[in-house]
Specification:
Elements (H helix, E strand, L loop, with lengths): L19 H10 L4 E5 L3 H9 L22 E5 L4 H13 L5 E5 H6 L20 E3 L6 H16 L3 H5 L1 H7 L1 H6 L22
Parallel strand pairs: 1-2, 2-3, 3-4
The structure holds iron/sulfur cluster (SF4).
Iron/sulfur cluster binds next to helix 4.
């Protein structure tokens, strides 16, 4: 009589058990498609990051799209003037969830040296920032470091809750209350200038 095998040993090693969150986060963090929001000199370093010497493709983020609907990480690189700020916010809102933001350089993070009536004192006054990269300008390595930090942050996120925050709020408000707000890597920046929210 033939022996009945408990399982097919041929597939051993080809099957992985994991959690849904871990699998989704793994896919997301290794395929972050940037929305290059180049507004000033920092954008040159952003371009260098994508070029052959620094090769952002090593981190799965070489697919820079100029269509917000195909992006999931906005890299704000440069000085955000009030004139430009609302356009940045509109593009951010056109990006689908889940999405993240990197503030690249002193200007995007805090207004930098432009303590002027014309410059937004940090893009985090308009949109939530996940990672701040310091420098004026930051070197490409610094941006890559910021990208790696963002990947680490995504690893620990709850995919389902982050994907449909509005739906979760409607269906299970008590779960959302228990979910801590998204912390930034460096913390908030306070500019001290009038908030542009009144413009929105
Ligand atoms: S941080 Fe420095 S390099 Fe970057 S946009 Fe501002 S002034 Fe230019």
């Amino acid at each position: 009589m033939p022996q009945i095998a408990a399982y097919d040993s041929k597939i051993e090693g080809n099957v992985i058990f994991t959690q849904l969150d871990a699998a989704m986060n793994w896919m997301r963090k290794n395929s972050l498609w940037p929305m290059p929001m180049g507004l000033a000199c920092c954008a040159i370093e952003l371009m260098a990051t994508a070029a052959s010497r620094f090769d952002i493709a090593r981190f799965g983020s070489e697919v820079m799209r100029f269509s917000p609907r195909q992006c999931d990480v906005m890299i704000v690189a440069g000085t955000v003037t009030y004139k430009m700020a609302l356009a940045v916010k509109r593009i951010w809102e056109q990006m689908p969830e889940p999405k993240w933001c990197i503030a690249m350089g002193a200007c995007a993070s805090s207004g930098g040296m432009y303590r002027s009536y014309a410059v937004l004192q940090g893009i985090d006054q308009l949109i939530p920032v996940d990672v701040y990269v310091s420098g004026c300008p930051p070197r490409p390595e610094a941006l890559l470091d910021g990208l790696i930090r963002l990947q680490k942050k995504i690893e620990g996120e709850s995919s389902f809750l982050n994907q449909k925050p509005k739906l979760i709020h409607e269906l299970m408000p008590e779960i959302e209350e228990r979910t801590p707000p998204r912390p930034s890597i460096r913390g908030g920046v306070t500019g001290g200038t009038p908030s542009p929210r009144s413009l929105v």
